[in-house]
Design goal:
The chain is of the alpha/beta class. It has helices at about 15-30, 40-50, 65-80, 105-130, 155-175, 195-210, 215-225; strands at about 10, 30-35, 55-60, 85-90, 135-140, 175-185, 235-240. The chain is globular and about 50 Å long.
Length: about 240
């Protein structure tokens, strides 16, 4: 029996890309998935796909900028299934631009989604994990935080903030909770959709040349989850072999 089978996993940012791939893979391996994202039509379609394949899924529209939405996602897991084993914080935006353009609203959006969204998830799930005596946080960050490049300073800063936050949480978690950080490299997702046209074209060109499938990141997340409860996989980097 897989260590994944029977676990209840909530995924924020589940409607596409890495979140969608993770939901499909974990459900295939026997987990019950609780899906959160801003697009309810996508969530409904994904849940139906999982259930048609014999899996179990629930969903709730979730904007990670709203603390109450993360609380409701966790409560959905508890109300429907009686427990929560894993929270995957995957929602993120990359509104990259040169610092000189002073796109302060974009900076704030990245802070709100990429950092505060993770904090809101922790605030919702940590008390539950403490009561249960078990639980696992999986936070998606980025290789952009490992190799800082022009135009990605604020984006990388938010991802590195989550990396730092996760390590601090791990040290406070004790011997019954687990914390994993997964750093994807260039991956075929909708990451570029919200960018300014000039930024988007560059990213899409790079994706076309070297990007890997979201399934690769999903397998890394599954690897961390499927370890025995006494094993904490702290940091996983998954990137194309061609990525510098």
């Amino acid at each position: 029996m897989s260590e994944i089978e029977g676990k209840v996993v909530a995924i924020a940012g589940a409607s596409s890309g890495i979140g969608e791939a993770t939901a499909l893979l974990l459900a295939e391996r026997g987990a019950t998935v609780v899906l959160g994202a801003r697009r309810p039509d996508r969530l409904e379609a994904l849940a139906a796909r999982i259930e048609k394949a014999g899996g179990r899924a629930a969903y709730a529209p979730t904007d990670v900028k709203r603390r109450e939405d993360l609380a409701a996602l966790v409560e959905l897991a508890l109300d429907r299934y009686g427990r929560l084993d894993v929270l995957v914080s995957n929602a993120g935006v990359g509104l990259i631009s040169p610092m000189d353009e002073l796109r302060v609203e974009d900076w704030e959006e990245m802070i709100d989604v990429n950092l505060k969204g993770v904090l809101y998830g922790i605030a919702a799930a940590l008390p539950v994990f403490r009561r249960q005596g078990f639980g696992h946080f999986v936070n998606t960050v980025s290789t952009a935080g490992l190799r800082i490049v022009p135009r990605q300073a604020v984006y990388a800063a938010t991802k590195n903030a989550v990396r730092t936050l996760s390590e601090g949480l791990r040290q406070e978690a004790g011997d019954r909770l687990r914390v994993t950080v997964v750093s994807p490299g260039m991956t075929r997702t909708e990451f570029a959709d919200s960018m300014a046209p000039d930024m988007r074209s560059d990213i899409l060109d790079s994706m076309a040349k070297i990007a890997i499938s979201p399934d690769a990141i999903a397998r890394a997340i599954a690897f961390a989850i499927e370890q025995p409860s006494s094993v904490d996989v702290g940091d996983i980097v998954v990137r194309p072999t061609a990525q510098s």
